[in-house]
Design goal:
The protein is an alpha/beta fold. The chain contains 10 helices and 14 strands. The protein folds into 2 domains: about 1-170 and about 225-250, 3-Layer(aba) Sandwich (Rossmann fold); about 190-220 and about 255-320, UDP-galactose 4-epimerase, domain 1. Helix 5 links the parallel strand 5 (about 110-115) and strand 6. Helix 1 (about 10-20) crosses helix 7 (about 225-240). The longest helix has 21 residues, at about 85-105.
Length: about 325
């Protein structure tokens, strides 16, 4: 049987494609290449260039592809952009996810793994955040993801679809073997921009706000290595294939680092004291997001292999040098 990975040529999706291909799975990567890159797909996987909202294409893939599991990553992911362009996010992230869920149900695909986000929580009431914390997104991005979670829950009740929604926190780093990493030159991710500044691809790094209620005034996030995130998705597929019940799970390490701490560690690892400019806050950014991640360890036996900020920074820098 095969796994359909939507957004499979993107940052996180490509790492999941690699993890699945590494263990001999048949993988079909569906991507419109608007932000992904075809060269990130290994030769052992099949790349289909197309849109997840294309229902005839989805029907053809589901009918002929021997697909028994879907890992869904295709989405727009910038909270600040979503504040300016909310309807774009509801179309790309929610409406197109509906088309994908319907196609999966129509063709008897029993396992669905959804790439969700900690943005569904909004301003956290607890630190670290458990999965049963209130969900009050403060950006259309977070709302678009939460709406998809709701559709999956209702589809599970009505149609028997089993799913896992993985709410991960700040994904960072790159494949240790440098087969994949973040490629977008317009990425909003801190570590990507910091690596570019360290290597002279940016003249400076802008920090978005240092007046938050945190120890140093900058936002605190739970930075999770992308290969550990990929391993969580593979574990989720195995769990569902083995008859596991639907679940919503955080993916994080349970401890955070501030923006200024990440900048300092990037300077330390790279040996470059690049310029840093303090800019205004971005819309849709909560002060602190740290995961309570005991549930995924207990349910999947997930054991992170790269829980070290210096290692995450080093892999990001090595990937950026390769680019």
């Amino acid at each position: 049987m095969a796994v359909l990975v939507t957004g499979g040529a993107g940052y996180i999706g490509s790492h999941v494609v690699l993890a699945l291909a590494d263990r001999g799975e048949e993988v079909i990567a569906l991507d419109d290449l608007s932000s992904g890159r075809a060269t990130l797909i290994p030769r052992s996987a099949r790349l289909v260039v197309g849109d997840i909202g294309d229902r005839p294409l989805l029907a053809d893939l589901m009918a002929r592809g021997r697909i028994d599991a879907v890992a869904h990553f295709a989405a727009r992911i910038a909270p600040s952009e979503s504040v300016r362009l909310p309807l774009l996010y509801y179309r790309e992230n929610t409406a197109k996810s509906l088309a994908l869920i319907e196609s999966a149900i129509e063709h008897g695909v029993g396992c669905f793994v959804f790439s969700s986000t900690a943005a569904v929580y909004g301003e956290p009431q607890f630190v670290p955040l458990p999965e049963d914390a209130a969900t009050w997104p403060i950006s259309p991005y977070g709302t678009s993801k939460l709406m998809t979670e709701t559709m999956l829950a209702d589809a599970a009740t009505a149609h028997g679809l089993r799913y896992t929604a993985l709410r991960y926190f700040n994904v960072a780093g790159a494949d240790p073997s440098l087969r994949s990493g973040e490629v977008s030159s317009h990425a909003g991710h801190l570590l990507k921009r910091a690596a570019e500044a360290a290597l002279g691809k940016r003249t400076e790094l802008t920090i978005h706000g240092t007046d938050y209620p945190t120890p140093d005034g900058s936002c605190v996030r739970d930075y999770v290595h992308v290969s550990d995130v990929a391993a969580a998705h593979v574990a989720a597929i195995d769990y569902l294939r083995n008859g596991g019940a639907s679940a919503v799970l955080n993916v994080g390490y349970g401890h955070g680092a501030s923006v200024l701490e990440v900048v300092a560690r990037t300077k330390e690892v790279s040996g470059v004291d690049f310029p840093v400019r303090i800019g205004p806050r971005r819309e849709g950014d909560p002060a602190t997001l740290v995961a309570e991640a005991a549930r995924i360890r207990a349910l999947f036996g997930w054991q992170p292999a790269f829980d070290d900020l210096a290692m995450i920074v080093r892999h990001a820098l090595e990937w950026e040098r390769r680019l």
